[in-house]
Amino acid sequence: MSSNLATKLREGTKKAHTMAENVGFVKCFLKGVVEPTSYRKLAANFYFVYSAMEEEMERHREHPIVSKIYFSELNRKASLEQDMRYYFGNNWREQIVLSPAGEAYVQRIREISNTAPELLIAHSYTRYLGDLSGGQILKNIAQRAMNLAEGEGTAFYEFEEITDEKAFKSQYRQTLDELPIDDATADRIVQEANDAFGLNMKMFNELEGNLIKAIGQMLFNSLTRRRTRGATELATAD
């Protein structure tokens, strides 16, 4: 039995994906405008979000559905710890703060883990497949925009345990399609994935203030005026 979940997720989140990539902060990022303070705040939020997601995925690694999509080689917490140390120093744990939008994201992950663990698949799909698809594009943009040396501040984008990202994504999607779920559960996972995109968008929106202060309102308006189909969306289609 095939759930066709991979196709349902791809088709069912297209609009949300496009909306996320047209948030001002993301559009500026994709055009090579990266404000360091905002980027550090985003990376710190991601540390908390991925820590929560990976703790809950680990907690349910024997779950009849979640276990099938549990791939420890995707985990980003350790990589983000490296980046936190680079951006904030050795006492980074005392410096980073979870933003209100980040807090809502973490709370949602904890909530579904307690009430409907199968919905964690939506968050895994939304974050990890995007990381694998657009990671190298975003890494290169961040390096150029912030003048980062190779291997400095970009550990988040490196999947050292995955040697063939395209093959891994194919395996991941096949696993999604083979999950033992009914149509109603698949629809709930797609809805949760759309909600996950919304949670990401709220985090991005929080960062626009610092970006506007750094580059000016006129330049920000110029960079974000046109609605575009972003680089990572194109990559995810591969």
Produce the secondary structure layout.
Elements: H1 5-12, H2 14-21, H3 24-30, H4 36-59, H5 77-88, H6 92-95, H7 100-115, H8 120-146, H9 165-177, H10 183-206, H11 208-215, H12 217-224, H13 231-236
Helix pairs in contact: 1-10, 2-10, 4-5, 4-7, 4-8, 7-10, 8-10, 11-12
Provide structural commentary.
The chain has one domain: Up-down Bundle (Heme Oxygenase, Chain A), CATH 1.20.910.10. Helix 4 (36-59) runs parallel beside helix 7, helix 7 (100-115) runs antiparallel to helix 10 and helix 8 runs parallel beside helix 10 (183-206). The protein has helices spanning 5-12, 14-21, 24-30, 36-59, 77-88, 92-95, 100-115, 120-146, 165-177, 183-206, 208-215, 217-224, 231-236. Mean pLDDT is 91; it is low at 230-238. Helices cover 69% and strands 0% of the residues. By secondary structure, it is mainly alpha-helical. The chain has 13 helices and no strands.
Features of the shown structure:
238 residues, mainly alpha, Heme Oxygenase, Chain A, globular
Short characterization:
With 238 residues, this protein is mostly helical. It contains 13 helices and no strands.
Order of helices and strands: HHHHHHHHHHHHH
| Shape descriptor | globular
Structural class: mainly alpha
Strand content: under 5%
The chain-level mean pLDDT equals: 91
Radius of gyration over C-alpha positions, nearest whole angstrom = 17 Å
Helix % is 55-70%
Counting DSSP E segments of at least 2 residues, the number of strands comes to 0
Q: Give me the CATH architecture, please.
A: Up-down Bundle
Integer count of domains: 1
CATH superfamily: Heme oxygenase-like
Q: What name does CATH use for the topology?
A: Heme Oxygenase, Chain A
Which class in CATH terms? Answer: Mainly Alpha
Sheet having the most strands: none
